[in-house]
Amino acid sequence: MKRKLPNITSKLYAPAAILMLLLVWQGVCMMDLVPGYMLPSPEQVWQAFVSDAPLLMRHAVYTLQEAIAGLLIGIGLGFVSAVVMDRFQTVYRACYPLVILTQTIPTVAIAPLLVLWFGYEMTPKIILIVLATFFPITVGLLDGLRSADQDTVDLLRAMGANRRQIFTYVKLPGAMSYFFASLRISISYSIVTAVISEWLGGVQGLGVYMTRVKKSYNFDKMFAVIFLISALSLLLMWLIDWISKKSMPWKRTD
Amino acid sequence: MEKLQVVHVTKSFGDNIIIKDVSIQLRSHEIVCLLGASGGGKTTLFHIIAGLHQPDAGQVLLDGRDITGRPGQISYMLQKDLLLPEKTIEDNVALAFLLQGVKKKEARRRVAEYFPEFGLEGTQKQYPHQLSGGMRQRAALLRTYMFSNDIALLDEPFSALDMMTKRSMHQWFLNLMEKIQMSALFITHDIDEALLLSDRIYLLRGHPGTITKELVLHEPKPRGGDFELSEEFRYYKSIILNELGL
Fold it and tell me: Minimal Cα–Cα distance from B9 to chain A, Å?
């Protein structure tokens, strides 16, 4: 029991810092250091959030659907391309530059094009999210697969393991932590890309909500939706951390 | 009876001849040491015996069968334990069975009875990182034994351990080998270790590496600490040092 105590206090540092920040912000607003219409107080933001909650939730669900669909496809695509590029050197040489190239395309630039091709529904958004999320997975996982210990691979070969067994016993488990590290990056990309793509054309979603409240200069609602977006990203990241701990029991320290 | 024979093996990488015309024999229930400096081609020879490299010339025979360049016949153990960090000790040890497609439950059942003998009781469900270096090497040896219970290649298996652990591992190893009657080819650069453990010693020297001397030790085993202080030990050691030009 005694050993847990410093652990709990250390966990309180970050929330305490955030609380301090909010208090300073509230203070600044209450002392009228910044005009109220430009910077709403945390209290006003909270009220805006509560009053618009049902609407926000509906938009959030839409955005989350896009983000998760795009992310899942991105993970699948990233996984397959990493495995194939690890297995076939020729494919690696041919396709790796191409993969890099996809990342030099600015999302904002091709979003309107995708909207023209695929309409205002989810499809163009999901495509953008896939483009943004598959890259970290491909690069991270490929790195992980390639960093497999050659001595361990040799040992398994000497024990008669075939290529598939070397992959499942050595390469893939060794790459898991790389995979989850990339997944955390992809998660935040997925939400951000979903919102940006909604700015550029859409009928529903948090990005659409943002453009609407922006047009009516509702700063408090702007802040409310910004906080909601980062809360969603955080939530998804926690989920990933939890899954990664569950799926890598050998990393658990006891 | 000859368990393992390496016959006139030569191997080069590019223009660099690593080992030349190396012939060694390992008989049943024998521990044979291959003694030589680091970088002298010991590991290359080792990879050839394990079937991971094809020699330029020569053959490797296991029980008289030609296994040259064919992996999957002899397992080995290195200085690094090479236990899979994400598998429990029992699954690591049972790796040979798992690779052969034996069901997990059955594989675990097969290895369970050997844990006490190898001094690994209670470690079945633990992960490698929870074990000490010495214990991990025991698990690595058991994994090797489970793959082939009559022969093992050991490449400096104890050289990463601290002196105290290493000494206790030597005694444990000698006692174990008496019990399980395995033949072992033991690669080392440690003269004392070679003298303590082996029935015969081959000296691998020069560039390219060749076998320059074979030394037969008659001292009964298991050998304890008193052997290391004996006249005989010093005699053998002086021969080796002389031969190595040290």
Answer: 19
